[in-house]
């Protein structure tokens, strides 16, 4: 299947952004390439269309880009997992540590039913902290079952899967360039 290579080729690496030592995985060029973008969505849809997933949770902000079309294609609802202060009404939140600081995620309390099967999607997994916090929102607080986590780019150097509370992780591409810290 040549699609993963085409996807990988469409991801631009920006050295030393946003700070020295970071090899930023920029998906902008992929989004500007409708063929590569469609490959991403098609591969994820093929994987999840028969798993009885009732909701797709996209982690802000790039998880929204991939989660929305995947949810539509598999007949699931899409739920945004947001940064603090961006949702109205009752929310639940989860604080977590990143490799370069800490952050918090929030989700609407009205968004989830306890019987639902969820897919959590983001653009990149490094340490797994963001996905782990997302799983905590779904499992611990909302009672839904996280079937799997999915990411466009996975950085094996950081062993992100070990922080995912035993949930499976599906990664579409892994970059082959590791000159420094990569996010």
From TrEMBL:
Subcellular location: Cytoplasm
Keyword DNA-binding applies: no
GO MF terms, alphabetically ordered: adenine phosphoribosyltransferase activity
Domain named Phosphoribosyltransferase: residues: 36-162
Sections of the chain in a coiled coil: none
Cellular component per GO, a single term: cytosol
Domain of life: Eukaryota
Entry's EC annotation: 2.4.2.7
Pathway in which this enzyme or protein is active: Purine metabolism; AMP biosynthesis via salvage pathway; AMP from adenine: step 1/1
Recorded catalytic activity of this chain's protein: AMP + diphosphate = 5-phospho-alpha-D-ribose 1-diphosphate + adenine
Signal peptide residues on this chain, from the entry's feature table: none
SUPFAM superfamilies in the record: PRTase-like
Keyword Glycosyltransferase attributed: yes
A Pfam family recorded for this sequence: Pribosyltran
Family the UniProt entry places it in: Belongs to the purine/pyrimidine phosphoribosyltransferase family.
Family matches, as PANTHER family: ADENINE PHOSPHORIBOSYLTRANSFERASE
Protein name: adenine phosphoribosyltransferase
Organism (species): Eutrema salsugineum (Saltwater cress)
């Amino acid at each position: 299947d040549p699609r993963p290579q085409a996807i990988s080729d469409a991801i631009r690496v920006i050295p030393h952004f946003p700070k020295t030592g970071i090899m930023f995985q920029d998906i902008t060029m992929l989004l500007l390439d409708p063929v590569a973008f469609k490959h991403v969505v098609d591969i994820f849809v093929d994987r999840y269309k028969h798993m009885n997933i009732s909701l797709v949770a996209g982690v802000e902000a790039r998880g929204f880009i991939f989660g929305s079309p995947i949810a539509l294609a598999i007949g699931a609802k899409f739920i945004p997992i947001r940064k603090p202060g961006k949702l109205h009404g009752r929310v639940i939140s989860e604080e977590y540590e990143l490799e370069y600081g800490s952050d918090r995620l929030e989700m609407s309390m009205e968004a989830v039913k306890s019987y639902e099967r969820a897919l959590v999607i983001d653009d990149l997994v490094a340490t797994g902290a963001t996905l782990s916090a997302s799983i905590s929102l779904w499992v611990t607080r909302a009672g839904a079952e996280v079937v799997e986590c999915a990411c466009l780019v996975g950085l094996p150097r950081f062993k992100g899967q070990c922080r995912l509370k035993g949930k499976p992780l599906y990664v579409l591409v892994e970059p082959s360039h590791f000159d420094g810290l990569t996010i």
